[in-house]
Design a protein that fits this description.
The protein is an alpha+beta fold. Helix content is 31%, strand content 23%. It contains 12 helices and 23 strands. The chain has helices spanning 77-80, 131-141, 162-185, 198-206, 219-232, 249-252, 255-261, 301-323, 339-353, 382-386, 402-417, 431-452; strands at 5-12, 15-23, 33-42, 47-51, 58-61, 86-93, 102-104, 109-110, 114-117, 123-125, 150-153, 190-193, 214-216, 240-242, 266-268, 274-279, 283-289, 327-332, 360-362, 370-375, 425-429, 456-460, 469-474. The strands form 6 sheets. It has a 6-stranded mixed beta sheet with strand order 15-16-17-18-20-19, with helices on one face. The chain has a 5-stranded mixed β-barrel with strand order 3-4-5-7-6. A 4-stranded mixed beta sheet has the order 8-9-11-10, covered by helices on one side. The longest helix is centred in the middle third of the chain and has 24 residues, at 162-185. 28% of the residues are buried.
Length: 498
């Protein structure tokens, strides 16, 4: 942790599995609760835009509107909200690109073991828990006072006692009471509740008996985390240690290099193959290449391909988590002829996804070797946080070649000088364009002069766009003053000496 940003990494089996980066002034707003104001209602989209005071208006769909006495199905946004209404909303997804935060009125307050849903009902229990534990927790929760709301039992509640669950729910009820009281006192837009920062959120969400150790390199944050655990899970507080090593914490565990690796398209596989990850506006495409993996001895091609795909399936999931890739994802595995091998690769992918905390859905691998899947992400990944669009290519990933710029500039010169008379002119161009026009003893420039009938001097201007040209003013009367590409004058001995 440093002044500029907080980094949180999850290490599994000695490798970095997840990374979260939170920069000062640019933290996630997921979980924040506001008293917002309806700015517009769009009947065609069955949604509304809500001003919450963070720059971009948030997006609220009709399915996320909670209104007493109104059925959840077959509702119209125009019947529920109107411009100027003040409502309490919560962010479920961070602003991304040009889109504002995704909002809901179905509020949820997360504790260590429980999530309290003020406008919900019933008891939900994490499906990651085994059946016996689910039954035990349900019996306990049936006896807890929910004050008319609903509760969700988290995976972290495994082994928790009735006293711990009751204490967790009581603190959430007090929090909800404080939010309502603050809402009555403020005018919109106003922040009512801030979710915990990334480090504390990770502790709250995933720290359990299966976690061996938590290392924190900031004394103040270490005290915050241990204080939280002493209140909620005293038995786990001694697993959190203050790191005081000579090598920075993140570098000592390879986190820095793992973060930097997310900026690369290509991900090497141990077998010699690789993944190539490309982002588009609509989806992320991941291509699996065999590369140098050609098998050994008498290994059949199908067996080599299958082993590469099985290795790639695990690495794909690691990269999805490490880069926090969301939305539609298409994985192009190497083609396999055997249906059993295709099922094995799909199983390996699903087994790896079982350790992913994000919600995913996978379609069975096709005969072409393609897997379509979706993954839910709620905030930007490391790559989006650390980078900005290239000012030259605009984020396209490629730039126009110097030759193309020069050809465009040549066309510009011909247009500028068409009908300009026969007086000599000076044309300003980018230096790379000048090099092209003056190459091969001024061949291109001479062609332009012969075609138009005008003597042209070039002025190099590095501030100009490469493919542009402009008339800079009249040149000297003598054509002999234009330098050749080799530095000598066009007319040789007739050139005046400086």
């Amino acid at each position: 942790m440093d002044r500029a940003e907080t980094r949180v990494a999850i290490i599994e089996d000695g490798r970095v599995a997840e990374v979260q980066i939170e920069r000062r002034g640019h933290g996630s707003v997921v979980g924040h609760i506001w008293k917002g104001r309806v700015e517009s209602v769009l009947a065609g989209m069955e949604a509304s835009f809500i001003e919450v005071g963070i720059g971009k208006n948030g997006f609220l769909h009709v399915d996320d509107v909670v209104a007493a006495g109104v059925p959840k199905r077959k509702r119209l946004i125009a019947d529920l909200l109107k411009k100027g209404d003040e409502i309490i909303v919560q962010a479920v997804k961070d602003p991304m690109g040009t889109k504002g935060a995704r909002l809901t009125m179905q509020l949820s307050l997360a504790g260590r073991f429980l999530v309290y849903v003020p406008f919900g009902d019933g008891i939900g229990i994490s499906k990651r828990l085994d059946d016996d534990e689910r039954h035990r927790l349900r019996d306990i929760c049936k006896r807890l006072p929910t004050d008319g709301g609903g509760i969700i039992v988290r995976t972290a509640a495994a082994g928790a006692s009735a006293t711990e669950l009751a204490r967790d729910l009581a603190s959430l009820n007090l929090l909800w009471k404080a939010i309502r009281e603050r809402s009555d006192k403020v005018t919109s837009p106003a922040l009512l509740y801030s979710e915990a920062d990334s480090s504390l959120k990770v502790i709250r969400d995933i720290l359990n008996e299966s976690v061996d150790e938590v290392l924190v390199d900031d004394a103040r944050q270490h005290e915050r985390i241990t204080g939280f655990l002493r209140r909620t899970s005293p038995g786990l507080a001694d697993r959190v240690h203050l790191y005081e090593g000579d090598v920075p914490l993140m570098e000592a565990h390879g986190v820095g290099s793992a973060i930097r690796s997310t900026l690369s398209r290509r991900v090497p596989l141990a077998s010699g193959g690789s993944l190539v990850i490309d982002d588009t506006e609509a989806m992320t495409v991941i291509d699996v290449n065999s590369g140098k993996n050609v098998g050994r001895g008498n290994t059949q091609l199908e067996a080599t391909i299958t082993r590469t795909n099985l290795e790639a399936a695990e690495e794909v999931v690691r990269q999805l988590r490490l880069r926090d890739i969301g939305g539609i994802i298409v994985i192009d595995f190497i083609d396999m002829d055997d249906a059993g091998n295709r099922r094995a690769v799909t199983k390996a992918l699903n087994d790896a996804l079982a350790g992913d905390r994000s919600r995913t859905f996978v379609v069975e691998i096709s005969p072409l070797g393609l897997v379509q899947m979706t993954r839910q992400n709620i905030s930007d990944g490391a790559r989006e946080i650390m980078t900005t669009a290239c000012p030259t290519c605009g984020g396209q990933g490629f730039v126009v070649s110097p030759e193309t710029h020069a050809i465009d500039a040549e066309r510009q010169i011909r247009l500028l000088l068409r009908g300009a008379g026969d007086a000599p002119v000076t044309v300003a161009v980018h230096p790379e364009v000048a090099d092209y026009l003056q190459a091969d003893d001024n061949a291109v420039l001479s062609d332009i002069e012969d075609d138009i009938g005008v003597s042209i001097s070039l002025e190099r201007d590095g501030s100009m766009a490469p493919g542009s040209a402009r008339i800079a003013g009249e040149a000297t009367k003598s054509r002999a003053r234009r330098p050749r590409a080799d530095g000598r004058s066009r007319a040789g001995a007739d050139t005046d000496e400086e």
